[in-house]
Amino acid sequence: MTLTFAVPARTDAQRAKRQTRRPAIRRTLTGWAFAGPATIIVVGLSLFPAIWAFFISRTKWNGIAEPQDIGWRNYERLAQDPDLAAAAQHTLVLTVLFVPASILLGLLIAIALNQRIRLIGFYRTCIFVPYVASAAATGILAGYVFNPQFGAANEALRRLGLPTQQFLENPRQALLVVCLIALWGEVGFTTVVYLAALQDVPRELVEAATMDGAGRWRIFRSVTLPQLRPVTLFTTVWQSITALQLFDLIYTTTRGGPMNSTQTIVYYIYELAFQTRRLGYGAAVAYLLFAVTLLLTALVIWRSRRSGEEAF
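-> C-alpha cells emitted (312 positions)
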C-alpha cells in the first residue's frame, strides 16, 4: 500500500505577501545601517558611564590610588551631610523661582510674538538667540553686567538715582541674580515652544467662541489655555530638569559663592569629585540627584496621564 501526501501549492496571496515583506526588511536594515553606529555611540556614552559611576559610588577613591570597596557607606552619609542639605536648599529655591517664571514669561512673550506686526521675524530671532548661545559665554557676559564696580546694571541704577547693589557678591542677592541670568538664557526655549503651540490652536474653536460673543480674555482662558496644557506640562518637566542640573552658569559667575550661597547640587558634585577628589561620595550624590529627578519626572507624567493630558 502506497501513501501519498499532497503538498499544498503556494497561493498567490502568500507570494505577494513575501514579495511585499522583502522591501520592508530591506528598508529596516538600511535605516539601522545609518542609525546603528550613532545609536551605539550614544548608548555607550550614556549607559557605560552611568553603570561605572554606580560602582564608583560604592568605593572610597581619589582617582589615583586603588579604590576601596566600602559598600553603601557613601549613601548612608548623604542624610548627615550639612553641605549637601544646603546645596539641596539652594537648588530647590532656584527651581521654585526659575520654573514658574520661565513658563509665564515664555507664554507672555509667545502671545506677543504671535501677533501680526512688522519685523516679527527679527523679534523672534532676538528672543531665541540667548538660548542657543553658550551658557559659559552668557555667564561671563553677566559677570561684567552685574559687576558692583563698573557693571552696566549699577550704571543704570546710578542714572535712575537708585542705590547701587552688590549683586553676585552679596549672599542675599546672588542666587536671585543667577536666576535672572538663567531666565535670560532659557526663556527663548519656552517662548518658541509656546509660539508653536499657539499656532496649532484650532481656528474653528476660536471662531466659534467669537461668534458666541466671547471676548479676548474669555477666549484665552476657556479655549487657548486648555489647548496649551500638554505644552505646559512638557515645559515644566524640561525646565525643572534644567534648574536641577544647572552648573555651567554657576561655574562662570559665582563658583558657588559668595559664602556658598549659590552652591547647587551639581556644583557640589563637581567640588567633591574634581576639587576634593572624593569621587566615590561625589558619585553617590550624583545618583541621588538622578533618583530625585527621575522620581519627579515620573510623578508629573503619571499625574498628567491620569488627568488625560499626555505630553510625552
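The chain is about 70% helix and 0% strand.
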